[in-house]
């Protein structure tokens, strides 16, 4: 079993440096895959209402018998933005997960045309104060959105989960996070469906450390103080993905990987992209 180190969030909670993405892990096979990851040492599980697999995550957690060691993340979908709507959405997620508390609750997308993300965030803070939620955070928020959130509520989110990979290193946003005590979390950390893992610089660095290209990229994330959440249903690959804490990339290697930057790979600009 792999031991994944933790860092402290701005609310004092321990947070793993690497977690499991569960998008498209559904049905009995999805439960088996999530349970295998827990057995391998994963303690951070990322789901969302829109992934339609909260029940599978909950079943895998129950099967594990170590609920207290696990951090379950889920997210408020766009259709549930608003104060009362968020309260109801959380109740639904708690029921599907079969737990008494959501450990990390995120706004999935800001959906700026709706203009309700501040109300949603205030509802999440209320749920935290009532003990139904542990840490409160956001996903796909920009620097101006985060600045307004902090100014209006006085509470910086614990986490901002964003698209991040060597093609889109998010240096400016990460600097803002660091200055405001926000933990960066990376979705699509391996830039799947791209040629990232075939890049020569990745291959050369992997060979020099005796690891895989995937491990190099995930270590790049962790050394940039971001928690990647790679998804895999394969227990062997899950263990490989988590086994990245026994080597260190040099500063020059991190710079070389970051130099692959080319921008977002998908239609995910938070100022325009919306999901319900």
Overview of this structure, please?
Strands 3-4-5-6-7-8-9-10 form an eight-stranded parallel β-sheet. Strands 1-2 form a two-stranded antiparallel sheet. It contains ten helices and ten strands. It is α/β, with parallel strands linked by helices and 276 residues long. Strand 3, helix 1 (27-40) and strand 4 (44-46) form a beta-alpha-beta unit. It is globular, with a radius of gyration of 18 Å.
Topology (SSEs and partners):
Elements: E1 6-8, E2 14-16, E3 20-21, H1 27-40, E4 44-46, H2 54-64, E5 71-76, H3 83-97, E6 102-107, H4 117-129, E7 133-139, H5 143-153, E8 159-163, H6 171-180, E9 183-187, H7 200-209, H8 213-223, E10 226-228, H9 235-242, H10 251-258
Parallel strand pairs: 3-4, 4-5, 5-6, 6-7, 7-8, 8-9, 9-10
Antiparallel strand pairs: 1-2
Helix pairs in contact: 1-2, 1-9, 2-3, 3-4, 7-8
């Amino acid at each position: 079993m792999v031991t994944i180190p933790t860092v402290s969030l701005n609310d004092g909670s321990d947070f793993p440096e690497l977690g499991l993405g569960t998008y498209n892990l559904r049905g009995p096979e999805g439960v088996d895959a999530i349970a295998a990851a827990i057995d391998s040492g994963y303690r951070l599980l990322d789901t969302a209402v829109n992934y339609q697999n909260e029940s599978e995550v909950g079943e895998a957690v129950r099967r594990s018998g170590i609920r207290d060691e696990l951090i379950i993340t889920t997210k408020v979908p766009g259709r549930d933005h608003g104060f009362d709507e968020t309260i109801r959405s959380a109740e639904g997620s708690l029921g599907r997960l079969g737990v008494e508390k959501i450990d990390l609750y995120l706004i999935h997308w800001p959906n700026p045309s709706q203009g309700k993300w501040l109300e949603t965030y205030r509802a999440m803070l209320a749920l935290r104060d009532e003990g139904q939620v542990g840490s409160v955070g956001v996903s796909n928020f920009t620097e101006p959105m985060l600045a307004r959130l902090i100014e209006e509520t006085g509470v910086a989110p614990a986490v901002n989960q964003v698209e991040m990979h060597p093609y889109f290193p998010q240096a400016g946003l990460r600097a803002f996070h660091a200055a405001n005590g926000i933990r960066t979390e990376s979705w699509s950390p391996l830039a799947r469906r791209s040629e990232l893992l075939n890049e020569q610089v990745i291959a050369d660095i992997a060979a020099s450390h005796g690891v895989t290209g995937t491990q190099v990229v995930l270590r790049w994330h962790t050394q940039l103080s971001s928690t990647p959440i790679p998804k895999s249903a394969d227990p062997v690959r899950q263990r490989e993905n988590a086994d990245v804490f026994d080597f260190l990339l040099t500063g020059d290697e991190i710079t070389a990987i970051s130099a692959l930057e080319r921008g977002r790979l998908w239609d995910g600009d938070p100022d325009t992209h919306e999901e319900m």
